Amino acid sequence: MADKLNAVKGMNDILPPDSARWEWLEEKVRALMARYAYRMIRTPIVEPTALFVRGTGETTDIVEKEMYSFEDRLNGEQLTLRPENTPGVVRAAIEHNLTYDGGKRLYYMGPMFRHERPQRGRYRQFYQLGAEVLGFGGPEVDAELMVLAWQLLADLGLRNVRVEINSLGIPPERQAHRAALVKYFEQHAGLLDEDGKRRLHSNPLRILDTKNPALQQMVQEAPQLLSFLGEASMARFETVRSLLAACGVPTSVNPRLVRGLDYYSHTVFEFITEELGAQGTLCGGGRYDGLFEVLGGKPTPAVGWGMGLERVLELVKEQGTAIEPPAPDAYAVIPDAAALPQALALLQQLRAAGISVQMHAGSSEGMGSMKSQFKKADASGARFALIFGADELAAGEVTLKALRDGSGAQERQPLADPLAWARKLQSAA
Fold it and tell me: Count of CB atoms within 10 A of residue 74's CB?
């Protein structure tokens, strides 16, 4: 016997009935995005490695430690499984001149890949929903995107989520803050861990994002970027907050919020829950006006967010929202294989009319007993059984048996005109 093969650690199968939760979530997302006039974009799972080195940031954990990168054996090109999708969206926008006729509101859903230690809500292959607005520079789209995320969580019935917000200002303001940070951390170099020492001069802003408990007090006392923002940046920040308040989205300012990627400027934000332990960030994003130029495009304002779908579904489950897999309208009970031609022809007509029907499937020994078929019909969740018995077929009919209303009522219907009685199944839905 051949050795058993299992999925790669941290890359999970999504099986029925759990897949019904994913379908439910995806339907909610598509409906909401349509209401906000966002359109789907699909980009490749594999991109040039340079896209993420330049776009995500050479000194980020993602690029330094977590990417699945490899050399294409055909041409030697360095490729990477996408660890996030914002650089890919911007690359596509530049390549196809997507904003030539004005700004675009886009969204995507799909798998991302990071080589990190798997834990609850955090996997090596994970699914991310993202929304990106390209070509609009005003604070109103920053607010709109956050309202969009807030509304999605509300549509999913989620509670106890807080929104933290900060501003990273513009490059000169960040440079002044950076110089103050370097000076401050140099004065406390003896307290820095190895990661902090490595980043002290390459990217000191990252130290503010440390998860090391021993550094928290020192980090809390570090210079705050908000203190270095000019009048225009502060006015923009306050406009975003006031627009959110007008839409009923409460926010709290977190001056230590810097996000983990190099391309952010001005508004940054996170949606956080306390109910998933250490993996409490459900959604995060911000404005990244400089990314188009970094990737070889024309200066283009842009803002977006990403949301981890595994974490969202964990919270849905944690807060008690039950998602039941869809049940068929009817289950076809077929006592004898000789009835299969007539049964299949009828089922095709019903399905063409929009009725969902699960057909009983037999084994090499036959179709199975009526008793076993009715057990499977009941287990399917169908509201009706369609019985293709010999007596019914001889009369040119099929029996409809109610399975869910407790009556067990039965009635015969003509095989020749299924569309007339198919409405019975639809009206019972």
Answer: 6
Please state, as a whole number, how many other Cβ atoms lie within 10 Å of the Cβ of residue 162.
14
Q: How many CA atoms lie within 13 A of 129 on its CB side?
A: 25
Helices 340-352 and 418-427: crossing angle, nearest 10°? 60
Residue-wise burial string across 14-44, b where 16 or more C-beta atoms lie within 10 A, e elsewhere:
eeeeeeebbebbeeebeebbeeeebeebebe
Name the strand (E) or helix (H) holding 392. helix 390-394
Sequence-distant (6+) residues with CB within 8 A of 5 are none
- Residue-by-residue DSSP string for 54-123: HHT-TTSHIIIII-EEEE-TTT--EEEE-S-SHHHHHHHHHHTTTTTTS-EEEEEEEEEE--S--BTTB-
Q: Which tokens is 290 given?
A: 């400089």
Residue 361 has pLDDT above 70, yes or no: yes
Query: Is the CB of residue 382 less than 8 Å from the CB of residue 373?
Result: no
Give the span between the Cα atoms of 130 and 149, in whole angstroms: 10
Residue 160 makes CB contacts below 8 A (sequence gap 6+) with: 273, 274, 275, 319
Region 214-222 average pLDDT: 86
Which residues contact residue 312 at a Cβ distance below 8 angstroms, ignoring those fewer than 6 apart? 25, 153, 156, 158, 282
Structure tokens at 176: 């002044």
Assess contact for 370 and 335: CB atoms under 8 A. yes
Q: Are strands 302-308 and 125-134 parallel, antiparallel or unpaired?
A: antiparallel
pLDDT digits (tens, 9 = 90+) for 132-184: 999 999 999 999 999 999 999 999 999 999 999 999 999 899 889 889 988 98
Largest pairwise CA distance in the chain:
94
Least confident of 100-114, 156-170, 220-234, 414-428: 414-428
Closest CA to 387 of 375, 397, 378, 372: 397
Domains of the chain: residue spans and CATH: 19-169+229-318 (3.30.930.10), 330-427 (3.40.50.800)
